[in-house]
Amino acid sequence: MAISPMALDSLDLARWQFGITTVYHFILVPLTIGLSPLVALMETLWRRTGNKQWLVATKFFGKILLINFALGVATGIVQEFQFGMNWSEYSRFVGNIFGAPLAFEALLAFFMESVFLGLWIFGWDRLSPRLHNLCMWAVAAGTNFSAFFILTANSWMQHPVGAVVNPRTGRAELDGVSGFLKLLSNEMVWATVLHVIASALLVAGAVIMGVSVWWMTKAARAEQDFEARELWRRVTRFGAIVMVAAGLVTAGSGHMQGQLVAEYQPAKMAAAEGLCHSEAGAPFTVAAFGDCKNEDDMVRFISVPGIYSFMATNDFDAKLTGLKEAGDTYAERYGTTDTRGNAVDYSPNVMVNFWSFRLMIGLGMTSMAIGLLALWLTRGNRVVTSPRLGAAALWTMWLPFIACTFGWIFTEMGRQPWLVAGVMPTQAGISPTVSAGEVLLSLIVYTLLYGLLAVIEVGLFFHYTAKGLPKVAEPKVSEDPDAPMSFAY
Q1: Which own/partner pairs from 443-449 qualify as long-range (CB within 8 Å, at least 24 positions apart)?
Q2: Does the pTM exceed 0.85?
Q3: 392, 224, 395: which is closest to 233 by C-alpha?
Q4: CB-based contact 474:49 (threshold 8 Å)
Q5: How much is the pLDDT for 251?
Q6: What does the alpha-carbon distance between residue 190 and residue 315 come to, in Å, rounded to a whole number?
Q7: CA 40 to CA 63: how far, in whole Å?
Q8: Is residue 362 exposed (0-12), middle (13-18) or buried (19+ Cβ within 10 Å)?
Q9: Beta strands in 215-295 (DSSP E)
């Protein structure tokens, strides 16, 4: 039986592999980024108020953080393997640029969070409460530094600045110290970092709120009024407040980021809005089906004139670049064929970008609305008692995870057909010596491995969530300098 060449195309398989592993890895990342400062804040509230319920919450959600952190590290390592395995030409081209921020990420951020997380786990009875709390704040700083340096590298792929291409080696190189400073001050970096960290806090707030509402309903039905009211209601409102505040910042930073994308990657935003041709007062379309290649077949539902122009420029009448005109500009600048003589299509997939953009926004806004609903239901010292609401809270907490996933699908798929926007086509980054069969084998192995890790992650999460509260005693610092550290969990 003949196998279709498309089914064994090494480029497509390598993209699928990187997409699958990246999406799984990033499901874990925002929870770590968002939960670490919130656990640190819970411990701070315990120290400041003396309320033991905050200590209980700190240890309960600290355990969830540890599970997520461990799986996040394991899945993140695979990303680096793929740079050398499937994308060696890409690594060769960007190595001099990516080396600096990724070195900072590994040597500063990752070691910082790892070392201080270890001290936090083992130091409950060896460190003073203040010093112990500072360890978790250091973990939070490390996770956010890590996000900053990784997003610095990714933002360079979206909007390359501070680099020159060496004609002798064919590699991109930093343009001296000023180039590195431009890399760090890239407009895309700061908008992206703010958007990602805010969305991570939305994710973490949703987990805290969802789990707390579920336990609140159980405690209320078991007539454990103190636990339901003093612990779970308190933590529910804590998570809900974070969700609302983070949701507002996510929306605002997303608006800023979208305007930069419209400026630097007009084809991506044109695809996200299904804008086939340049238009003044460009509309926002609620739903659409079809493709700009067959524009007559494009079906649109509810288009509001001027809204997309306002979103992109703060001007309802601004003229925005359409997908066809953006493609023509790229074709004029970079040619109509690749190095193999194949025709190049500079248009990203319209439907993937259109719907991932809307699902990202829609699910994010829905999550923020759920946070507002939780605050309303727990107003005036009320507790939630309905088991249906408890179950709904536990399941809807996954919505911001899905929203973040669609956000990254939009970010990466919208950049196509470029690995580095306007500089390096995707096909130019694939390893020339890796066969389609080898990529397919590693794709299968990684997918099965990640599937197993997903079962472990979800199983541990629900196991420790359902297990309930740990037995917590006020930590007493040992005065014996030779006493061994004890494992907190």
Answers
A1: 443/13, 443/16, 443/17, 443/20, 446/17, 446/20, 446/21, 446/78, 447/20
A2: yes
A3: 224
A4: no
A5: 94
A6: 23
A7: 13
A8: middle
A9: 279-280, 284-289
Cα angle for residues 10, 353, 161 (degrees, 5° grid): 75
Nearest to 74 by CA among 400, 487, 402, 456: 456
The mean pLDDT of the chain is 87
What is the token pair recorded at 65? Answer: 């953080």
Residue 474 pLDDT > 80, yes or no? no
The DSSP H or E segment spanning 319 is strand 319-320
468: left (phi over 0), alpha (psi -120 to 50) or beta: left
Residues 346/267, Cβ–Cβ less than 8 Å: yes
Dihedral of alpha carbons 233, 234, 236, 237, sign:
positive
Reply yes or no on whether the pLDDT at 4 is more than 70.
no
The answer for residues whose C-beta is within 8 angstroms of residue 171's C-beta and 6 or more apart is 92, 93, 95, 96, 165
**In the chain, pLDDT over 90 holds for what percent of residues?**
38
On the question of pLDDT at 7 being above 50, the answer is no
Q: Which residue did the predictor score with more confidence, 194 or 106?
A: 194
Identity of the residue numbered 462: F
CA dihedral angle for residue 250, residue 256, residue 258, residue 264, rounded to 10 degrees: -140
Whether the predicted pLDDT of 296 surpasses 80: no
Beta strands 299-304; 284-289: pairing state: antiparallel
| Nearest residue to 429 (alpha-carbon basis) of 353, 338, 345 | 338
**Long-range contacts formed by 1-7: CB under 8 A, 24+ apart:** none
Picking from 421, 439, 429, the residue whose alpha carbon sits closest to that of residue 339 is 429
Per the structure block, which two tokens stand in for 266? 């007009």
Contact 56, 478 (CB under 8 A): no
Nearest-angstrom CA–CA distance, 452 and 460: 12
Say how far apart CA 287 and CA 303 lie, in whole Å: 8
| CB crowding 388-402: b at 16 or more within 10 Å, else e | ebbeebbebbbbbbe
pLDDT of residue 476: 67
Cβ neighbours, 10 Å, residue 471? 6
The pair of structure tokens assigned to 456 is 């472990």
| 269: β partners | none
Answer yes or no: are the C-beta atoms of 73 and 118 closer than 8 Å. no
For the beta carbon of residue 342, count every other beta carbon within 10 angstroms.
10
| 264-289 average pLDDT score | 90
